[in-house]
Specification:
The protein has eight helices and nine strands. With 250 residues, it is an alpha/beta fold. It is globular.
């Protein structure tokens, strides 16, 4: 059973009528996917936010330019999500993600150099996957269905394209071991003055209700909010493979 941070459950009716066949042919529901979503850049294949927050979020948007479609499918067919199976998936085009186009906000010199991450980048892709609870698991275990949109792309550019390009805002943002420094990232997502935080917090379409922060260290390293707007600690939980996360609310 998932942990409850005390936030209202989102509406999941847009997922209920889908089948493996109609998922391939239905008009891509970009606004439903963005609404009440959790946006997780530099995500890798970290399933812990889904494990612990399923029900608080039904739509998860994971972004990582060091992952590929093939690796994603291997991860789903291997570890997957306990209690759930994949109903179906489809490849998503750029025009479906941003049907009206978008105007990028370019980084300053202080933000970092996006080209420094190119050597790690896999070919860009986007997969939309819908998961359904297995019949042997009771409804108390978790919601009937949830959506995962996985984008092989840059976390900053993808946020701007998806949310600013579609006049939307996520319900939550996850900044967890974002790979800056000794990792693969070109800019620190946790730094409030840098381009990712500016893109999120200066959006005219709204700001997240919650921010997740964490990593491989113990809880003593995550007692202080990374963004000053989020000061109320709602919950904390342990990572499956070590470390912890903290959920902060504005």
């Amino acid at each position: 059973m998932q942990l409850d941070p005390g936030l209202p459950s989102p509406d999941g009716t847009w997922l209920e009528g889908l089948t493996a066949e109609t998922l391939l042919t239905v008009e891509f529901p970009i606004q439903s996917i963005l609404k009440d979503s959790l946006y997780y850049p530099a995500s890798g294949f970290d399933g812990d936010p889904i494990k612990h927050l399923l029900g608080t979020f039904l739509s998860y948007i994971y972004v990582d330019y060091a992952r590929s479609h093939e690796l994603l499918m291997q991860e789903i067919s291997g570890r997957g999500f306990k209690g759930y199976r994949m109903l179906g998936w489809r490849a998503v085009t750029r025009s479906e993600l941003v049907p009206h186009g978008w105007t990028p906000q370019y980084p300053t010199k202080e933000d970092g150099n996006p080209r420094s991450g190119y050597c790690w980048a896999k070919p860009p892709f986007c997969d939309w996957c819908v998961f359904q609870r297995l019949p042997e698991y009771p409804k108390e275990y978790g919601p009937y269905r949830f959506s995962l949109l996985f984008v092989g792309g840059d976390g900053v550019a993808t946020f701007q394209a998806l949310y600013l390009g579609n006049h939307a805002a996520p319900r939550g943002v996850a900044i967890i071991q974002d790979g800056y420094g000794f990792g693969f990232n070109w800019t620190p997502f946790r730094d409030r003055s840098r381009i990712f935080a500016r893109s999120v917090m200066e959006s005219p379409y709204g700001q997240p209700e919650v921010v997740l922060n964490g990593g491989w260290s113990d809880i003593s390293n995550y007692k202080v909010p990374i963004w000053p707007e989020y000061t109320k600690q709602l919950m904390q939980f342990q990572k499956t493979r070590g470390g912890c996360y903290v959920v902060w609310k504005a």
